[in-house]
Amino acid sequence: xSDESDLSSRRRPRGRKVRTRGQRIRRAVLVTLLVLVVAGGxxxxxxxxxxDGNITGVDIDKALGEDRPxxxxxxxxxxxxxGSDSRDGAENKELGGGGAVSGARSDTAMVVHIPEGRxxxxxxxxxxxxxxTRPECTKADGTAVPTANRVMFNSVYSQVxxxxxxxxxxxxxxxxxxxxxxxxxxGFKDLVDAIGGVTVDVEKPIHDKSSGLDLxxxxxxxxxxxxxxxxxxxxxxxDGSDLGRIGLQQQFLLALLSEVKSQDLLGSPAKSYKVAxxxxxxxxxxxxxxxxxSLAEFARSMNGVDPGSMETIMLPVAYDKVDPNRVxxxxxxxxxxxxxxxxxxxxxxxxxxxxxTGG
Length: 359
Fold this sequence. Notes:
Blueprint: H1 4-20, H2 22-26, H3 32-40, H4 45-54, E1 56-58, H5 60-64, E2 77-84, H6 90-93, E3 106-114, E4 122-125, E5 131-134, E6 137-138, E7 144-145, E8 148-152, H7 155-159, H8 162-173, E9 179-184, H9 185-194, E10 198-202, E11 206-208, E12 213-215, E13 218-222, H10 224-232, H11 242-262, H12 269-280, E14 283-286, H13 292-300, E15 311-314, E16 317-319, E17 327-329, H14 333-342
Parallel strand pairs: 1-14, 2-9, 4-15
Antiparallel strand pairs: 2-3, 3-4, 5-8, 6-7, 9-14, 10-13, 11-12, 16-17
């Protein structure tokens, strides 16, 4: 895109196609929202520039070097999605009890695998309390951090940074991570509010004094603040561990994607822009996705992925024998799961069963 006229000439014909392909595009992952804005309503360069400038990029490839798993032998893709509980900024500090905690952690972590053909996807959640071996990493300032055993997975982000989280996932799984996407507390809240809330079905009443979440069993329409409490609650469900809330996080992800799919964002450019602005201003990606153009291309490559067919799995874990408040990857289930993803093959049912359930 060399100038405004080039951008405009490319966008007009694409806009006509989007209206005939809207259902397929809305089925793509969350970043498709950016495509809707660019193709459906943003007609001036300053809008594009503002959204494009919102995105923060991290050069994962440079940080990790060559000592990495091989890429998939197929056209499949692996995306690491983190929900960060960063306490940076006034808005983030006000959310989820942030004022009482310093630093930042990867509050939610999912490896999203899109097999060859890109007509389906599977999301593997990694419990934040999982004990892992953190590999030797380098911080953004160049400081070397030695390897460490038995560290909590969610501490890697705060101790070393996002590149080390990617490296840790690659070392524990043998899976090459193609792309990285992170959204923080405030961005999550604003995104839900921008689309007008998300509807969830609550199986059992949730009463969590820590998060303030108080829901009866049944169907509820959650706003941004309630949604944040919903995906973070742990004291109001199961045994109070991180394992119980993973099911809620996965359920909410599918509900969120279905909500986006059901809305006529193409028919409302103003709302499309509001949604995309909320998403991008709190978005951090690998450098390969750190622009609207790159995100749009990635989203278009996944037009056929339907949220309704997305499978959600928790990494099989067992309670740690030394510290029952922590978990470790359960074998051979975890090994079989990662092997299937590495080979872009069907995941056996036996690899989806976790000895520790959080119930």
